[in-house]
Amino acid sequence: MVAVPSELERTGFAATHRRDAWWVAPLVQGVGLATLISYANWAAFQGRNYLAGNYLSPLYSPLIIVDWFPFSPAFLILGGPGLFRLTCYYYRKAYYRSFWLAPAACAVRDAKSGYTGEARFPLFLQNFHRYAWYVAVLFIVMLTWDAILAFRFKDGFGIGVGTIVMWINVVFLAGYTFSCHSCRHVCGGAVDIFSKAPVRYSLWRGITRLNEKHPMFAWLSLFSVGLTDVYIRLVSMGIIRDWRII
């Protein structure tokens, strides 16, 4: 029997029988990640324009300035949230497909032959994600405090556009952090009999529903961090003026 073309095995880079635009998702995700990561590094290297009155950029929170450190204070704190995102299950899928092409999409040949998964160095370090989650929770607490301070103006209590921007950022970051698989496991993953732990079961069910939105919060929070820094940077530079609502 002569095989028809659709039945022939395809070989080579990104070989696939798929006829849809499978490359769009990894391309868009790759461009998005590259853009936001590049901006975050640029903003961190600046070491200035991160504070505008009572507004502090999330890339510099908590603000730590010591005489012995010769670089931008952002580099003293970005490792914590950076490690959490780097080892995130969703982001692994995104950058494995976009940057490593392993695989670029379902039913598409990997860029390299052979599959080792995350059993070898350095990828087995991805298992530290569960511990990075606790660090991420600490940053949510600190960013929430920054957002509370955003109500405090020189003349007393108030609300500016920056206040709202900072609170939106905290909500998106909290949604991303608490929709994490690690949070779901902490709440109820180790419970064998849920009927004996009704409180943890309720938490587990709530986090499970939130977990379905984890990819959405992953992108929203990534953009919100960048946009919050942009807003505070522009206000600090005097390019725009923060509009006082109350």
Plain-language structure description:
This protein has 246 residues and is mostly helical. It has one domain (23-236). It contains 8 helices and 4 strands, in the order H-E-E-H-H-H-E-E-H-H-H-H. It has helices at 24-46, 79-86, 89-100, 129-149, 161-178, 181-189, 198-211, 214-236; strands at residues 51-52, 55-56, 152-153, 156-157. Strands 1-2 form a two-stranded antiparallel sheet. Helix 1 crosses helix 3 (89-100) and helix 5 packs antiparallel against helix 8. The longest helix has 23 residues, at 24-46. The N and C termini lie far apart (79 Å).
What structural category arises from helix and sheet content? mainly alpha
How is the largest sheet built, in terms of strand order?
Answer: 1-2
Helix-strand sequence = HEEHHHEEHHHH
Domain module count: 1
Over the alpha carbons, how many angstroms does the gyration radius reach?
22 Å
Overall form: globular
Number-wise, the strands total 4
What proportion of the residues is helical, as a percent range? 40-55%
Regions with little confidence, pLDDT below 50 for 5+ residues: none
Strand content: under 5%
The biggest beta sheet reads:
2 strands, antiparallel
- The first-to-last residue Cα distance is 79 Å
Short summary of the structure?
With 246 residues, the chain is mainly alpha-helical. The protein contains 8 helices and 4 strands; from the N terminus they run αββαααββαααα. The mean pLDDT is 90.
SSE order and pairing:
Layout: H1 24-46, E1 51-52, E2 55-56, H2 79-86, H3 89-100, H4 129-149, E3 152-153, E4 156-157, H5 161-178, H6 181-189, H7 198-211, H8 214-236
Antiparallel strand pairs: 1-2, 3-4
